[in-house]
């Protein structure tokens, strides 16, 4: 049985406890044994090197450098990493090691909660197969991203809330390699209920399975 670790905490506005519970259920349905922790020290545990998958749900906050480096080493050795929204890519803003691992960092969501479109750019990828572009109402994440990511879906900014980014095409869903490990990320899911949007639930579940070490 593959083993997964979910670590949740940090800013409560992203419903980290509810998201952790939901994702735990999805992974258990896929045959994973799932452990949940609520402190960043969990990333420093040597035992994480034996896991199949790690899910961070920890907006903002801080991580000790040794813990971040241990997490990076685990993924570099083959452990999968997957997550969503600020729980993964607005975590540990001071840790460049962690940001290099994830492939991107949130910097703004102009207009806050708005209507926008998610465009599927790789419909033949196993994570996105059968999914069509869809409208969504939430935070439209503007991110600084690693050029090495493989982009699976994007969104285009209108400039209504920040004129200088009119027409900017921003990655929304991506995957990447980090050493022997696989990393998956979706910027969707500001609140827990958004994870139940059929397209979001599907791509998240597939993305976690893609990232997980066999």
- The fraction of residues assigned to DSSP E strands is 25-35%
Main β-sheet, spatial strand arrangement: 2-1-3-4-11-10-9-6-7
Low-confidence stretches: none
The CATH class designation is Alpha Beta
Major sheet characteristics: 9 strands, mixed
**CATH superfamily annotation:** Class I glutamine amidotransferase (GATase) domain
Number of domains: 1
CATH architecture: 3-Layer(aba) Sandwich
SSE order, one letter for each helix or strand: EHEEHEHHEEEEEEEH
Instruction: State the total count of DSSP E strands.
Output: 11
The CATH topology label is Rossmann fold
Query: Termini separation (Å)?
Result: 9 Å
Contiguous helical run count: 5
Residue share in helix: 10-25%
Mean model confidence by pLDDT: 98
| Rg of Cα set | 16 Å
Structural class: alpha/beta
Shape: globular
Summarize this entry quickly.
The chain is α/β, with parallel strands linked by helices and 214 residues long. It is built from 5 helices and 11 strands, in the order E-H-E-E-H-E-H-H-E-E-E-E-E-E-E-H.
How are the elements arranged and paired?
Layout: E1 3-10, H1 16-29, E2 33-37, E3 53-59, H2 65-76, E4 80-84, H3 85-89, H4 96-102, E5 104-108, E6 113-120, E7 134-139, E8 142-145, E9 150-156, E10 169-178, E11 181-186, H5 198-211
Parallel strand pairs: 1-2, 1-3, 3-4, 4-11
Antiparallel strand pairs: 5-8, 6-7, 6-9, 9-10, 10-11
């Amino acid at each position: 049985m593959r083993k997964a670790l979910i670590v949740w905490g940090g800013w409560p506005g992203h419903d980290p406890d509810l998201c952790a519970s939901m994702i735990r259920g999805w992974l258990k349905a896929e045959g994973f044994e799932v452990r949940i922790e609520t402190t960043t020290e969990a990333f420093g545990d040597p035992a994480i090197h034996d896991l199949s998958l790690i899910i961070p749900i920890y907006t903002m906050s801080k991580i000790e450098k040794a813990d971040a480096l241990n997490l990076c080493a685990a993924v570099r050795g083959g452990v999968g990493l997957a997550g969503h929204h600020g729980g993964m890519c607005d975590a540990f803003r001071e840790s460049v090691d962690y940001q290099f691992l994830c492939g991107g960092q949130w910097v703004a969501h102009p207009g806050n909660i708005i209507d926008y479109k998610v465009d599927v750019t790789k419909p033949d990828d196993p994570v996105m197969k059968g999914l069509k572009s869809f409208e969504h109402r939430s935070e439209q994440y503007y991110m600084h991203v690693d050029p090495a990511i493989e982009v699976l879906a994007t969104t285009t900014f209108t400039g209504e809330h920040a004129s200088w980014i009119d027409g900017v095409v921003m990655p929304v869903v991506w995957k990447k390699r980090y050493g022997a490990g696989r990393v998956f990320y979706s910027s969707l899911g500001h609140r827990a209920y958004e994870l139940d949007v059929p397209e979001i639930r599907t791509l998240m579940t597939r993305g976690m399975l893609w990232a997980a070490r066999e």
